[in-house]
Design a protein that fits this description.
Number of strands of chain A: 12
Shape of chain B: globular
Strand order of the largest sheet of chain A: 6-7-8-3-9-10-12-11
CATH architecture of the largest domain in chain B: 3-Layer(aba) Sandwich
Oligomer: heterodimer
CATH class of the largest domain in chain B: Alpha Beta
Family (chain A): Belongs to the ABC transporter superfamily.
Strand content of chain B: 15-25%
CATH superfamily of the largest domain in chain B: P-loop containing nucleotide triphosphate hydrolases
Protein name (chain A): Methionine ABC transporter ATP-binding protein
InterPro entries (chain A): AAA+_ATPase, ABC_Ni/Peptide_Import, ABC_transporter-like_ATP-bd, ABC_transporter-like_CS, Oligopep_ABC_C, P-loop_NTPase
Radius of gyration of chain A: 21 Å
Structural class of chain A: alpha/beta
Strand order of the largest sheet of chain B: 6-7-8-3-9-10-12-11
Order of helices and strands of chain A: EEEHEEHEHHHHHEHEHEEHHHEEH
Largest sheet of chain B: 8 strands, mixed
Keywords (chain A): ATP-binding, Cell membrane, Membrane, Nucleotide-binding, Transport
Strand content of chain A: 15-25%
CATH topology of the largest domain in chain B: Rossmann fold
Pfam families (chain A): ABC_tran, oligo_HPY
Number of strands of chain B: 12
Largest sheet of chain A: 8 strands, mixed
Number of helices of chain A: 13
Number of domains of chain B: 2
Distance between the termini of chain B: 22 Å
CATH superfamily of the largest domain in chain A: P-loop containing nucleotide triphosphate hydrolases
Chain lengths: 328, 325
């Protein structure tokens, strides 16, 4: 693989609380290649958004990165000063959040917000910035962009607002876009438009995407590779087609079976018993072991490390350890 | 239909969204109305799951609220077991009320945080006089067991439970009145997929055991396909298509249904080419004339702009589209 654009190694994020330290992200490692779309999927509380927030340096205190490193093109960005981080955020890493209404300032017109962002990061005149902004709005599919640019966010519909947010994220031509549940607040018919747009426009500009979502369907349509997160740890990473069609980690398999589909008929959905543990009650060994049907003694005491699998995949599960295979 | 439990005829609901009187006078504006639902007709047979699917603003929840009596309809009738709910007296309505219950979307908002789970579940038993004394506790514990919780949980408060468990409590509460009919308004939308699977399975098991009838409301087409015996598709407050079983998904008739199905992300990775979806749901205060879908419809003809399409028979149900007439 060529040098990754973004490389996260052994990331650990902790929240000190009155009742002890909670470890929300525990040793997460992954890479994003230039131009690649990496899907990050997991249930609520798995740590998807937290990972994204850590990468762009927007971790809310008291949350903090305890160890591990985050590198953008080989350069560490996890311990930069707020001022240095500000130069990267927006310029080199763009963000698209779930709720378009809260990521736009309601008091400023779209034009002002776009031009401000462009001029902060690029050395262009006001008129040139406006021209770029209009072109970008037009590109993201806002009809009559040269007129609508002077509207306020509330004058746009939900889907249109998310288009504006995408334009805002892309206006400084970042190398990486972190999209945190970009379509969760939208209706299905609008969702598919936004997904297509995000995918197209990032491919056009050569930007990599980290797509955070709980929706496997969105991942299947968009991502090249997918990382499945469980209790702040990566259960499985691999190319999206193989992870979806033949999941290896028991959690991924359960997750895939529990999603009703439009093509497959079944009377009952696969059911994973219980729910994800709270952060103060993550069991020893594999975090998934109490819910796993295939767990054995080792799973309860020793935490599985990521095991390399054929087809550029990695799975953190003792079932795939060669030692187990030869013994058992 | 042979033996409908619920029959809805010409159901409509308008909301007054006018500005205050003084503003209207000064700004010379008319009263404004938002038509949340208009002319909705369907019936639900005993023991079946009728699903309503639609995007936000399509009127799904308004219909649910009117059926359980949380909102009075502006026009039309709702017949429960042959009785017109708008015409029955208070005491009869109270007796009818026991026979239908509702499960809401947000289990964080639908349970009183100051009540213990045991009290929440046993309240309908007391209100409707279904059990007395020690029987109440016994029945409450049995209900908790039915939905997969334990009798010990009765002492706890809702905040001690996860979203999925809270939805189980909401189901136990709905079941405690021994209803025949349950309106489920997006019961799993707030839940993670693995928990959603548990709740959907539970709801199906309960239906098999108790012969329940469901009105299942959701925006998620795959969930609807999994649960429904019949499905109605709503667009801007109008029922555009009704179809039996899975045929809606195999052979959609209305252009909107086709578009909606095309928009669902494809987990099967079939790589199918889909028609790109265009536009968004228009503002219901000023809905388009004629067929409400015509501005987004790829096959609209002139007639669609002027005439509201009536409902036509299709191989597996009915659809409101001029092209099918």
């Amino acid at each position: 693989m060529t040098e990754p654009l973004l490389s996260v190694r052994d990331l650990v994020i902790e929240f000190p609380t009155r009742r002890g330290v909670l470890r929300a992200i525990d040793g997460v490692s992954f890479d994003i290649a230039p131009g690649e779309v990496l899907g990050m999927v997991g249930e609520s509380g798995a740590g998807k958004s937290l990972t994204g927030a850590a990468i762009i340096g927007l971790l809310e205190p008291p949350g903090r990165i305890v160890s591990g490193e985050i590198k953008l093109k080989g350069e560490r960005i996890d311990h930069l000063s707020p001022a240095a981080m500000r130069k990267i955020r927006g310029r080199r890493i763009g963000m698209v959040f779930q709720d378009p209404l809260t990521s736009l300032n309601p008091l400023y017109t779209v034009a002002k917000q776009l031009i401000e962002t462009i001029r902060t990061h690029m050395n262009v005149s006001d008129a040139e910035a406006r021209k770029r902004a209009v072109a970008l709005l037009d590109r993201v599919g806002i009809p009559a962009a040269d007129r609508r640019i002077d509207d306020y966010p509330h004058q746009f519909s939900g889907g249109m607002r998310q288009r504006v947010v995408i334009a805002l994220a892309l206006c400084a031509e970042p190398e990486l876009v972190i999209a945190d549940e970009p379509t969760t607040a939208l209706d299905v018919s609008v969702q598919s438009q936004i997904i297509d747009l995000l995918k197209e426009i990032c491919a056009e500009k050569g930007a990599s995407v980290m797509l955070i979502t709980h929706d496997m369907g969105v991942i299947a349509e968009t991502a090249d590779r997918v990382a499945v997160l469980y209790s702040g740890r990566i259960a499985e990473v691999g190319p999206v087609a193989s992870v979806i069609s033949e999941a290896e980690h028991p959690y991924t398999r359960g997750l895939m079976g529990s999603i009703p589909t439009l093509t497959h008929d079944s009377d009952r959905l696969v059911q994973i018993p219980g729910s994800m543990p709270r952060l103060n009650a993550i069991p020893p060994g594999c975090a998934f072991n109490p819910r796993c049907t295939q767990a054995f003694d080792r799973c309860r005491v020793e935490r599985p490390f990521p095991i390399d699998r054929p087809g550029d995949r990695r799975v953190a599960c003792w079932l795939y350890d060669e030692q187990e295979a030869t013994h058992g | 239909m042979a033996d409908p439990l619920i029959e809805v005829r010409g159901l409509g609901r308008r909301f007054d969204v006018s500005k205050p009187w003084l503003n209207r006078v000064l700004e010379r504006e008319e009263r404004q109305y938002l038509t949340a639902t208009a002319d909705v007709n369907f019936s639900i047979a005993r023991g079946e799951t009728f699903a309503l699917v639609g995007e936000s603003g399509s009127g799904k929840s308004t219909i649910a609220k009117m059926i359980v009596g949380l909102l009075p309809p502006s026009e039309g009738q709702i017949l429960f077991d042959g009785q017109d709910m708008g015409k029955v007296g208070t005491s009869e309505l109270r007796a009818l009320r026991r026979r239908f219950q509702m499960i809401f979307q947000d289990p964080f908002a639908s349970l009183n945080p100051r009540w213990r789970v045991g009290d929440i579940v046993s309240e309908p038993l007391r209100t409707f006089g279904l059990a007395k004394g020690a029987e109440v506790t016994r029945e409450m514990e049995r209900l908790l067991d039915t939905v997969g919780l334990s009798a010990r949980d009765a002492e706890k408060f809702p905040h001690e439970f996860s979203g999925g468990q809270r939805q189980r409590i909401a189901i136990a509460r709905a079941l405690s009145a021994k209803p025949e009919f349950i309106v489920c308004d997006e019961p799993t939308s707030a839940l993670d997929v693995s928990v959603q699977a548990q709740i959907l399975n539970l709801m199906r098991d309960l239906q098999d055991e108790m012969g329940l009838t469901y009105l299942f409301i959701s925006h998620d087409l795959s969930v609807v396909r999994h649960m429904a015996t019949r499905t109605g598709v709503l667009y801007l407050g109008r029922l555009v298509e009704v179809s039996e079983g899975k045929s809606l998904f195999r052979d959609p008739q209305h252009p909107y249904t086709k578009m909606l199905l095309d928009a669902v992300p494809d987990l099967a990775l079939s790589g199918r080419r889909r028609t790109p979806v265009t536009g968004e749901i228009p503002n219901p205060i000023n809905p388009p004339s004629g067929c409400p879908f015509h501005p987004r419809c790829p096959v609209a003809i002139d007639k669609c702009k002027t005439d509201v399409p009536p409902s036509f028979q299709t191989p597996n149900g009915s659809a409101a589209c001029h092209l099918l007439g």
